[in-house]
Design goal:
Layout (H helix, E strand, L loop, with lengths): L5 E4 L5 E7 L3 E2 L4 E10 L3 E18 L2 E2 L3 E17 L2 E10 L8 E16 L2 E25 L2 E11 L11 E11 L2 E12 L3 E2 L4 E10 L5 E15 L8 E14 L9 E8 L11 E2 L3 E14 L5 E12 L9
Parallel strand pairs: 3-11, 14-21
Antiparallel strand pairs: 1-11, 2-4, 4-8, 5-6, 5-7, 5-10, 9-10, 10-11, 12-13, 13-15, 15-18, 16-17, 16-20, 19-20, 20-21
Amino acid sequence: MGGNQTKSENAVSIGNLKLYFNKAEFLPGETVQANVVLALTQDTYCDAIIIKFKATEQMIYKGNIQKPYTVIDRIAQMIQIQKKLSRGSHNFQFSYQLPNVLQPSYYLDKANERMQTSQVRNGEIITYDQEEKLKFTLMYMMVSQLEIKDKNILDMEGLNIMKIGSAANNQPISDTFSEVLKNFYGNYGLYQQKVFIKRSEFNPGETIPIQLSFENKGSKPLKRINVKLIREQNFINPESGGRETKQKKLIISDINLIQIVPPKSVKENVGIHFKIPDDPKLILPSYNGGAFSCRYFLQFTFHYNGAFCSEVSTSRQVPILIIGKNDRRFN
């Protein structure tokens, strides 16, 4: 299995087990076709081979290694033998349908990433760079095990689970929000905005077609629209024993649209195209796990003219998923 970690623990005096899959990458809900090869060094009575499907998360933050967290541990197949097998090689086939809902296999190594941190000291804001040494993995594996007397014959083979868009999850985004806008100089009335996107899952480098609608029921015109793509990472700090959650937000892309609307216009529609960067240092796959999460939001801010050259604004965030081929380029 190219790129997958494999661990074997074999009772050499009796023999060994080896798992072989029909391919290297799988999708959620897909059926895994596999062979188990049992090589015996002597005639041996065998009861059954137990096949397990497992998944573990692990994080390393600033050199502190978090204890692996078991996400999935279930019996996938029990191959009944219940007879004496002769010395030599024996082949057993099995199939297992993967769960329909799975996080993608994840390999993240951000050892050289730096983030800006600000602190107030003696009334002065001081900004400095802090190195974030973060490594995170979600690994899927199949485990085959044969117990003979006091011997344990074991083999573990990694599976790459790929995350792709599907009709069930890739739903349109439609969000309408209204707000009465006001500031120190006065109340400007009710403004209504709507964001519509035909689907919710996108690939790095892809362009998102967005339809914006707004109804100006207030007294002031729309000055501009600001659109941002925000990446939000949350992870449990291993130093805290699971008690502290750290968060990092990063604005990846920021565009401004200039659109002048006459006061009290009935309705206006604006179509825009927002391109997601194809930079592996910025665009990580979306992930939502117990120890680590990486989420993306499109933030829309509508700025309106206020009195005396002031501005009033209303803002909304909508979540999107960034997917694509999950390989080592995300390191």
